[in-house]
Specification:
Protein name: Response regulator transcription factor
Low-confidence stretches: none
CATH architecture of the largest domain: 3-Layer(aba) Sandwich
Modified residues (4-aspartylphosphate): 53
Distance between the termini: 47 Å
DNA-binding region: 126-224
Domain Response regulatory: 4-118
Shape: globular
Largest sheet: 5 strands, parallel
Organism: Silvibacterium dinghuense
Strand order of the largest sheet: 2-1-3-4-5
Number of domains: 2
Order of helices and strands: EHEHEHEHEHEEEEHEHHEE
Helix content: 40-55%
Length: 227
């Protein structure tokens, strides 16, 4: 699959190096030198993937990703940053990024993550998946519960689809990561927890029965609460 990739990075030599490697893999690459340009380009064209630095002029990467998610664009986003604290990673994923890669990194690792992005794009088969009163429409990236509808990111949609297809069985942490991100992808249990926490907030609102359950030390499952 040939992807249209937007690289938002203010260090041009670094951006060009990444761009050439991705073009060598057959992808189409566009460069943006600051956050405002990245947002403008992201709004005007249908990119499959955004690779974005955090510390950029005019608008930081967290804000760019957040605004792209607010626009409900389907572009996947991987943050590339030297900011490697747990709080930075949580902030990036909560903003709507699908992955977070800390600098410095091996180019082969980035290319592997890009390939994993291709694999985890959900198939848009027009079939609803259900558990109790929860309905997932993967081709629309939305869930419905009663009259309430919530929009999902690609990663949230992929995770929920996996859990629904296996419900009510418990899906182990490692199996969930491998199926959602691809084999060998470097995604930690902490990162998975951040996505699950966001997904749980969309599945269950105050007053609604809990459906997404944590099995401590094992994984996650979808099922009705025991009566």
């Amino acid at each position: 699959m040939v992807m249209k990739i937007l690289i938002a990075e203010d260090k041009r030599n670094f951006a060009v190096q990444i761009g050439r490697a991705l073009e060598g893999e057959g992808h189409s690459v566009t460069l943006a030198a600051d956050g405002s340009e990245a947002l403008r380009l992201g709004r005007s064209a249908e990119f499959d993937l955004l690779l974005i630095d955090v510390m950029m002029p005019r608008m930081d990467g967290f804000e760019v990703v957040r605004r792209i998610r607010d626009l409900r664009l389907e572009t996947q986003a991987i943050i590339l940053s030297a900011r490697d604290s747990m709080q930075d990673i949580v902030t990036g994923l909560d903003a709507g990024a699908d992955d977070y890669l800390t600098k410095p990194f091996a180019l082969d690792v980035l290319l592997a993550k890009v390939r994993a992005t291709e694999r985890r794009i959900p198939a848009r088969a027009p079939r609803e998946l259900r558990c109790e009163d929860l309905v997932l429409r993967p081709w629309m990236f939305e869930l419905q519960r009663g009259e309430r509808v919530a929009v999902l990111t690609r990663t949230e949609c992929a995770l929920l689809e996996i859990l629904l297809r296996r419900a009510p069985a418990v899906v182990p942490h490692g199996a969930l990561i491998e199926e959602a991100w691809g084999p060998g992808c470097d995604v930690s249990f902490d990162s998975l927890y951040v996505f699950i926490r966001a997904l749980r907030g969309k599945i269950t609102q105050p007053g609604e029965p809990e459906l997404l359950h944590t099995v401590r030390g094992v994984g996650y499952c979808l099922r009705a609460e025991a009566g």
